[in-house]
Each structure stands twice: as C-alpha cells, then as structure tokens.
Write a structure and sequence with these properties.
One of its GO terms (molecular function) is biotin--[biotin carboxyl-carrier protein] ligase activity. The protein has five helices and 15 strands. It is α+β, with helices and mostly antiparallel strands and 256 residues long. It folds into two domains: 196 residues, Bira Bifunctional Protein, Domain 2 (BirA Bifunctional Protein, domain 2, 2-Layer Sandwich), CATH 3.30.930.10; 42 residues. The chain is globular, with a radius of gyration of 18 Å.
C-alpha cells in the first residue's frame, strides 16, 4: 500500500481514521453513545473493516488498506420516517458525484443505492437510522467503494470493478474520496429540506436501466421489465407486461 493512501490517524473536518474495526457503522453508533454532541458529518474511516455490512443482511468484503470503508453521520432537520428514502437519494448522489470525478462516463445508480460502472458494482451504501417520535434523529451512512483493489473473489470478479481498474491509476487517494463524499453530503442534505423533488429528479436521471427493457426476477419468475422511475417513498415504478407496477426492494431482483 502506498504510504500516502491514508493520512496518518485522522484528518481535518471531523474525519477519524482507525486501523481496524469490525464495522464502521457499529463503531460510529457506539461513539454516539459516548460523545455528545457528536458533530454532524463526522466520518469514521477504517483501513481494515473485518465485518462490513451490506443491504439485506449481506456482508461487504474489502481488501485491507485498498478501499474506502467509512461511515458518515447525518442529522437531518425534522425528517419524518415516511420520507426516509430521501436520505438514500442524498447518499447515493453524494457517492455518485465523488466517483464521477474519476470516471465521468458509464456510471449509474442501481436502485436503491448501489453505484455501477458499465454494469459492474463499484460502491454500496448501507443507511441505519435512529428514530425518535416518528422523526429521524440521526442517520449513519455506511459507504464502501472499491478503490485500489484489482483482484476479487471468483464469484464476483465479473460483476465488480474498482477505480484503479477503471482509470489505471494506482496512486488514488482514499482520503480524498472521503472528503468529496462529506462535501457532497453537506451540499445535498440542505436541498432535501427545501427542494426534495430536485433531488428525486436527479436520482432518476442517473438510474440504472431506466427506460431499457431488461430481465428481472419478479415473484419467482423471469420477466422483461422497463424501469420508469423511483418515487419519493422509494418504490420502483416498473412496466411489466404492459402494466405499471410499484415494487419495494423485496419484490424484484435484477438479473445482471
């Protein structure tokens, strides 16, 4: 690993770097119980995350020292749980923009919050919310981005990529990605509170497979569907057999 891949033990702007942790999300949750108040947009980065978590209870595996594994603290103002998908949109756009600086073409958001480059996954997001009185008190946004890793396990190597594989740059700065995501979150979160439709529109413009007839698994059967958009509730609007359906995350699977 390059000596300058990470800054020493911490960076400015409330970015804390630790050598090894089971889960950056869990570490930040524990920190919130001990440090009050913890500054909004605080970031926990790990050089090695041993038990990272993904969507639907899946794990997120990352080679030590080669990728971004980090959690970001968000404290939205007066956001009801009924609108929690807006945080997924804010987080997805923030990670998308950070990656787009390095790979300006072929990038998309796979509903709900994976980032793809030319059909290959480069990043994933896991959001965990703290709820109080039907409001979101704070959110922990866990982000994993494949940065310098160039070899992946056999079962995922054909559907996974990294910034180094896409750019051929072996000296990318992982800390700079964290700065970019933190900056983007600071930019997008206030927009959520005043112009949420603008964020939804931007998210849908970047949506993977939008308007393209593609293969999906729906209720245990393979079907041809065409994604229309995602609504504010996070439901996927997709046309199947001429009928427009609204589907949650458990109702459909992509056939990549």
């Amino acid at each position: 690993m390059q000596n300058n891949t990470f800054f020493n033990d911490s960076g400015p702007n409330n970015i804390i770097v630790i050598d090894q942790v089971a889960s950056t999300n869990d570490y930040l949750k524990n920190l919130l119980t001990k440090v009050k108040p913890l500054a909004p947009y605080t970031v926990i980065m790990a050089k090695n995350q041993t038990a990272g978590k993904g969507q639907r209870g899946n794990s997120w595996s990352s080679a030590p020292g080669l990728n971004l594994t980090a959690s970001f603290l968000l404290t939205p103002e007066c956001l009801p749980i009924s609108k929690q998908f807006l945080l997924t949109i804010v987080s997805s756009l923030s990670v998308y923009d950070a990656i787009e600086q390095y790979v300006p073409t072929g990038i998309s958001i796979k509903w709900p919050n994976d980032i793809l480059i030319k059909n290959k996954k480069i990043a994933g997001i896991l959001i965990e919310n703290k709820i109080a009185q039907q409001q979101i008190k704070h959110s922990i946004v866990g982000v994993g981005i494949n940065v310098l890793q160039t070899e992946f396990p056999h079962d995922i190597k054909n559907k996974t990529t990294s910034l180094t594989l896409e750019t051929r740059d072996k000296n990318l700065q992982i800390m700079q990605l964290a700065y970019s995501i933190q900056h983007n979150l600071k930019k997008y979160l206030p927009v959520l509170e005043v112009q949420p439709q603008d964020l939804i529109n931007s998210y849908n413009e970047k949506l993977y497979n939008r308007g393209i007839s593609s293969l999906y698994e729906y209720h245990g059967q393979e079907v041809i569907g065409k994604i229309n958009q995602v609504d504010m509730d996070g439901l996927l609007q997709i046309e199947i057999n001429g009928n427009l359906k609204k589907i949650d995350l458990k109702g459909i699977a992509y056939k990549l």
